[in-house]
Design a protein that fits this description.
The structure is a single chain. The chain has 237 residues and is mainly α. The protein has one domain. Helix 4 packs across helix 8 and helix 6 packs antiparallel against helix 7. The protein is globular. The relative contact order is 0.16.
Amino acid sequence: MESNLAERKEKGLTASTIKWIAIITMFIDHATVNFMEKAYPQLMEDTSMMILYFILREIGRLAFPIFCFFIVEGAVHTKNIKKYLFRLFIFGLISEIPFDLVLFDKCFDWSYQNVYFTMFFGLLAIVCMQRWKHNWFGQMVCVFSMFILADLLRTDYGGAGVLLIVVFYVLREQEKYRVIFGSIVEVGFMGILEIGAVFAFIPLHFYNGQRGKQNKYMFYLFYPLHLLLLLGIRGCL
């Protein structure tokens, strides 16, 4: 059994590698929206371009489940979960202006908030569940509250995103059920267009539990920086 574990660690994918998969697919998704919807909307009138658009958007669906998975990994292994919450909230604030500029062409738009706030509420739900681990009613109230808050504030993926993080946390030791119920949340709560997200479970299956070489702040900063990059490129076209 020890040899099997060692073999999996050697041959599997590290957290760093899987996060790069999420980052690349997220970039593809946002670039598709930025250029095909915003810069050249006339492309959407062509059937072949529409097909390409949906293929690229489906590729982009892989990113969010991977990020949710590693929110749970961080919650379980972090030495200071309060600092973890603080980082998510701060980077949510940092990312909001680039997010609004890319989506709404203005610095502030309160109708929709970036994904960092969804992950913040999801992590906050986990914190409550850890604190009230012997009080199932308290846990349910907390999860429901975070679900409602994310929906009311209209964060990216909303309450369903919070629910996905909670499902990953509750079923973190049961991969088969994590895949089943995670897929139900993705498609059942977020819509059939999230079907591409199911493929995120393939790289996650090969996760070997190792961090790999990574700079955690680089992964945090990539989100606002890539939005600014896309905005700058669109402005030059």
